[in-house]
Design goal:
Number of helices: 3
Number of strands: 0
Order of helices and strands: HHH
Helix content: over 70%
Number of domains: 1
Radius of gyration: 21 Å
Shape: rod-shaped
Strand content: under 5%
Distance between the termini: 38 Å
Length: about 130
């Protein structure tokens, strides 16, 4: 969750900086450049997502190895299975949240890159 909040904050700061600098310099084309930067940021988030996916898979393998390595009573096995299922739900939610961030910033970046100057002219007259 912290990663998602940080990702959203950084992406919002990139877009906000593009708006501010475009208004400051009176050049709406600067905003379009920040749209390209936002799309590049989305690509970087994909790399982070791949690293997290690798980490999730490693943890999943370790959980399977721990389960098979120990002799457990049925109650312990049920608890272990429930604990692992909860962990996997958390991981799945994190994967989904990161994928949403990637898609969101890729779309926002491309819209700004393509139409940012036009939108800025409509909203703020430069």
């Amino acid at each position: 969750m912290k990663f998602v909040i940080l990702t959203m904050l950084i992406g919002s700061m990139i877009v906000g900086a593009g708006v501010y600098l475009s208004i400051y310099f009176g050049d709406a084309y600067i905003f379009r450049r920040f749209g390209a930067l936002t799309t590049a940021y989305a690509a970087i988030i994909v790399l982070v997502q791949i690293a997290l996916e690798n980490r999730f898979e490693k943890i999943k393998e370790e959980m399977q190895m721990n389960k098979s390595a120990k002799e457990m009573s049925p109650a312990e096995e049920e608890f272990f299975d429930r604990f692992n299922a909860n962990k996997m739900r958390v991981f799945a939610r994190q994967r989904t949240n990161i994928a949403i961030c990637v898609a969101l910033f890729a779309v926002i970046g491309e819209i700004i890159h393509g139409f940012g100057d036009f939108v800025l002219h409509l909203i703020v007259i430069i």
